[in-house]
Amino acid sequence: MSEELSVRVDGHVGVLEIHRPPHNHFDHGVLGELADTAEELADSGDCRALVLCSEGRNFCAGVDFGAGGVGDSPVHTLGAVYGEARRLFALPVPVVAAVQGAAVGGGLGLACAADFRVAAPSSRFHANFGLLGLHQGFGLTVSLPAIVGRQKAADMFYTARRVTGTEAHAIGLADLLVDEDALRQAAVDHAHRIAASAPLAVRSMKSTLRSDLLAALPSALEREIVEQTRLLGTKDSEAGVAASLARTRPTFTGE
Fold it and tell me: Is the pTM of the predicted complex or chain greater than 0.85?
């Protein structure tokens, strides 16, 4: 296992922690390792639930555009990344995400791949794609509406506004709202509550509850890749990414 991911087993709960502080940007490599490890824990039969967490002040800020982003071949890169996303959505055991700080862009997608999210009032859920001139990705096309409803998901996508942990809890995006210093433990405790139920029954329940989402996911991801690739070539996307790196407000021209 690399230095970018660690795992510990607490009874029947596996805790996976990403180590790419402070913002925990992901790439294909770390997502692949995360999916590999999560599948191994689930396949072992000993882990009945998983906790996904990260080191640093933010849960995950998605792709690091300052480090090359999707590179020169966005179709290939996005296809590889979203292939790992499909594996995370399809994990057979429940996953609880401990979301400290920000879950931005693809980081929001990663949080929504989990079955439950634990947040603090200071947490921020940000579908920032509109400010980057991009279509949403990481399966959010189907996962976010399934969690908060179509109207609230559309609002988050179209306005690209930040949603606080308090609001996220009110709209169902965060399942538990706790003090920041209790966030990690609350996620582990919730995973233990799940792990106390009959493991075969829980796996069966998850398979049933996720069947519609998993059926819709492949075509949604394909659409996301096509649209993100197309929009990456626009002036608006260029302006949005540049503004994000400079921490300024973008000016869009519709080109």
Answer: yes
